[in-house]
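User: Could you check the structure of this?
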Amino acid sequence: MKKLDAVKMMRDIRDKLVERYLEDPELETKELEEIRRKYGLVEAKERLNHTSDRSSG
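Assistant: Sure, the predicted structure tokens are below.
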């Protein structure tokens, strides 16, 4: 039975993503926006704005 090498697996994934995003730099931004929309996540700068809006009211 072959032992799972998680570090190597993560390096391989990262290397593949780097290649994809070097070919199309806007792809990374597009994919991150899709993920944020899918999971209802807010960018850090937007979160800071929402937090400061609540504290000033």
